[in-house]
Design goal:
Radius of gyration: 24 Å
Low-confidence stretches: 1-8, 373-382
Largest sheet: 6 strands, mixed
Number of helices: 10
Structural class: alpha+beta
CATH architecture of the largest domain: 3-Layer(aba) Sandwich
Helix content: 25-40%
Distance between the termini: 23 Å
Length: 382
């Protein structure tokens, strides 16, 4: 049987639809856990043990563990949650070229690629070894809880593959911007805007100065952006504003820019600009930069040898849990899911052929790290 036919048999879109049709909005703990329960059944069937990290308010994070033997240890990384609240976008359908539904590319489809490849490795060798899978439940809301667990787990692995969506030509992701988010609170003094204008201290005016200073931190030539995405303040037109709040996000391509921008945001956030104003901030670094490295370049070369062709690569401005692992110095590649588009919208879709291509590639890669080769169903130590 050809490799393509093997993959087509394993990429069961009816089975994938079961995952997609379960609402797993990040705040829907019951739904996220239901997805985890179904995925766990499939993983247990191919020999994985299950280590559940229970959470009270969000879905449980789950580490699927295989047997260990001599050789590199591989971590596969994904997430169960999606961005769609119950009742907003829950259907699955397909046509000859595409499948449609919440998470088909971001990233239940990617999780299914990992599962399908692992199933093929298990079928070929009778076991899976040296390959573990971590599925988290809060990636879409920033991994504020799971990033600490990811850091603790990832330190035990030699490399990490992440199953966010591929590029349009099956590119894998070699770099992602880092991101930081701050909330700045500004306190002034209320006063009647007509009778006691000069007795007031205008928090909104201070916020305006802050926004201008924060935006000036942008350096387009470096790929650094600072965006004040939300602001609010004041009581009404006839009152000097006693309070204002600003939400600001920064994205950056390298650690030098990260350090500059974070330091400057924190300095600006505590600069009054208007006499009598007090300001403070919360927040900070959300995900660190995913930068290219020599270790990553060597990993790319190794994978190219395994799949028999060059890997197409790309950089992205958006973040993922690949940022967290890469920042630890572990060679990391992202984008091993299917190609899709419309993610985070009701038009989300994924290309069927890209599933087949991805499962073929990932199967070859995981078979290598599994530590054995199979010739005519005879297993030999590699």
């Amino acid at each position: 049987m050809s490799e393509e036919k093997k993959s087509k048999r394993l990429v069961n879109f009816t089975e994938l639809a079961q995952l997609v049709e379960i609402n797993s909005y990040t705040q829907n703990k019951a739904g996220v856990d239901q997805v985890g329960k179904l995925y766990s059944q499939w993983m247990a069937a191919i020999g994985f043990t299950i280590e559940r990290h229970r959470r009270a308010d969000i879905g449980d994070h789950i580490l699927y563990k295989s047997a260990k033997r001599k050789g590199k240890k591989v971590l596969l990384l994904g997430h169960f949650d999606t961005v769609f609240p119950p009742g907003t976008f829950e259907a699955f359908h397909e046509d000859p070229e595409w499948i449609y539904g919440p998470g088909v590319c971001d990233m239940k489809g990617g999780n299914y690629v990992a599962l399908s490849a692992l199933r093929q490795v298990y079928k070929d060798f009778g076991h899976v070894a040296n390959i573990d899978v971590l599925m988290v439940s809060d990636e879409e809301s920033g991994s504020d809880d799971s990033k600490y667990l990811t850091q603790e787990i990832a330190k035990d692995y030699d490399l990490c593959l992440v199953f966010e969506a591929a590029g349009p030509e099956n590119e894998v992701v070699i770099a992602r911007k880092g991101v930081a988010t701050y909330q700045i609170s500004i306190t002034g003094k209320a006063a009647h805007a007509g009778n006691h204008y000069h007795a007031g201290i205008n928090a909104n005016l201070a916020a305006a100065h802050l926004i201008i200073e924060l935006t000036a931190l942008t350096r387009n030539s470096f790929g650094t952006t600072v965006n004040t995405g939300k602001m609010s303040g004041g009581i009404g037109a006839n009152t000097i504003s006693p309070h204002a709040t600003i939400t600001v996000e920064a994205r950056f391509n390298n650690k030098t820019e990260k350090e500059r921008v974070l330091s400057e945001i924190e300095r600006i956030a505590t600069t009054p600009f208007i006499n009598g104003v007090k300001s403070s901030f919360t927040g900070g670094l959300q995900r660190d930069v995913m930068q290219m490295s020599n270790k990553q370049a060597l990993l790319i070369k190794e994978l190219e040898d395994l799949i028999g062709r060059p890997l197409k690569v790309e950089k992205r401005g958006g973040v993922s849990d690949a940022n967290t692992v890469s920042a630890m110095g572990i060679p990391t590649l992202d984008g091993f899911g299917p190609f899709g588009d419309g993610d985070h919208t009701i038009h989300e879709r994924a290309n069927k052929e890209s599933f087949i291509n991805r499962v073929d590639d990932v199967t070859k890669i995981l078979a290598h790290f599994n530590g054995k080769i199979s010739v005519n169903n005879i297993e030999k130590v590699a």
